[in-house]
Inverse folding.
């Protein structure tokens, strides 16, 4: 191992240790503060708030001050045509809000300061064959004038006609792809019948180029693809962002340490490496619809994967605490989901109590959102891409 590689390894280990110590100290200070308030009879919650938190199975609001929902992930449907074994938002209901109600919620979010909306699922193109999704995308860009509108999809249900009708209103389209081997995708569950996931991937990528939509790839590194070399395929697809991460499982579904790297590629393209959490009741635990434990890889296996892809440089680690607390997630009822305890604790719906009240129960850390670089160039008008 060369000297520069050894120095890089030492720097990485030190950053991970510092990050982990910081997380543990923060948790200890939070617990101590709550214990002292309990001893002195003090509480930041009114009796009404305490009753609501108990009923909803929550631990109380995370913030007293007003939090701005700059970037929101709206999982408006849980239905999906794929059966990925590590899915963390499974088809536990078939509920989808009427579109006028969904638009009302989106307007409330805009009024509260939302700048970016990401539509996800489930598979967002499944409901009404993408028309519902398209109309929400159009509404957010044309009526609400949001700087950024994005979608995460498996790509299997997208038609060129959708781009022709709605492509102008979409900034970023992320396609989930865990392998460039069809058999591996089938083993993972990222397939439907005899359809080729990879054919769809390349087809959608070309449409994104034709209709000027920024293209992104999400990958979960697991036992089935951890030894795969993806450099050539990623280079040919040329996404603006490539998010990859391992599924990690520890006792009680609480993740202790993770690696989250932001990878800067040449020509200004950005790739991210992050870690996905197992969620009790979704992909782990007795009442879950998935058993994600079999997809677990070790830290060393994940590091080996990164080493094989180290031609993509500038690695920056990010703790799981940052990931868990710095994303705002809305479910199909427009309830914020607090994932801090390794499960999804829902708030009241923003349609019933408003954004300011509901976001108190989201577990969202706005400072951490900004610290991890959650605000980036997310409007395609500002990306200056060579279409």
């Amino acid at each position: 191992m060369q000297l520069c590689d050894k120095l890089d390894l030492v720097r990485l280990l030190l950053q991970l240790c510092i990050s982990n110590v910081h997380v543990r100290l923060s948790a200890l200070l939070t617990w101590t503060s709550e214990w002292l308030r309990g001893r002195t009879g003090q509480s930041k919650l009114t009796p009404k708030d305490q009753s609501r938190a108990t009923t909803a199975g929550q631990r109380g609001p995370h913030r007293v001050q007003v939090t701005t929902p700059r970037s929101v992930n709206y999982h408006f449907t849980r239905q999906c045509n794929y059966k990925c074994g590590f899915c963390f938002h499974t088809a536990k209901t078939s509920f989808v809000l009427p579109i006028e109600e969904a638009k009302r919620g989106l307007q409330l979010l805009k009024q509260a300061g939302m700048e970016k909306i990401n539509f996800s699922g489930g598979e967002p193109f499944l409901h009404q064959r993408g028309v519902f999704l398209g109309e929400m995308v159009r509404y957010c860009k044309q009526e609400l004038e949001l700087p950024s509108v994005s979608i995460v999809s498996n790509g299997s249900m997208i038609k060129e006609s959708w781009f022709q009708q709605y492509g102008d209103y979409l900034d970023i389209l992320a396609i989930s792809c865990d392998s460039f081997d069809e058999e591996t995708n089938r083993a993972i569950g990222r397939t439907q019948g005899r359809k080729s996931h990879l054919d769809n991937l390349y087809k959608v990528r070309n449409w994104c180029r034709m209709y000027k939509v920024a293209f992104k790839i999400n990958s979960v590194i697991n036992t089935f693809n951890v030894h795969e070399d993806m450099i050539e395929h990623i280079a040919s697809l040329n996404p603006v962002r490539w998010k990859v991460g391992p599924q990690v499982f520890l006792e009680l579904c609480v993740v202790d340490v993770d690696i989250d790297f932001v990878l800067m590629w040449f020509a200004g393209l950005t790739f991210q490496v992050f870690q996905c959490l197992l969620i009790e009741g979704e992909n782990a635990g007795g009442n879950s619809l998935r058993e994600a434990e079999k997809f677990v890889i070790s830290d060393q296996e994940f590091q080996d994967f990164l080493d094989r892809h180290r031609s993509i440089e500038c690695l920056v680690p990010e703790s799981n605490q940052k990931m868990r607390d710095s994303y705002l997630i809305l479910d199909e009822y427009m309830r914020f989901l607090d994932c801090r305890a390794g499960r999804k604790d829902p708030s009241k719906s923003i349609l019933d109590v408003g954004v300011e009240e509901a976001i108190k129960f989201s577990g969202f850390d706005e400072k951490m959102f900004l610290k991890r670089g959650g605000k980036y160039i997310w409007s395609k008008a500002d990306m200056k891409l060579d279409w």
Notes: The longest helix spans residues 3-40. The chain has 14 helices and twelve strands. Confidence is low (pLDDT under 50) at residues 16-59, 247-277, 313-320. The radius of gyration is 21 Å.
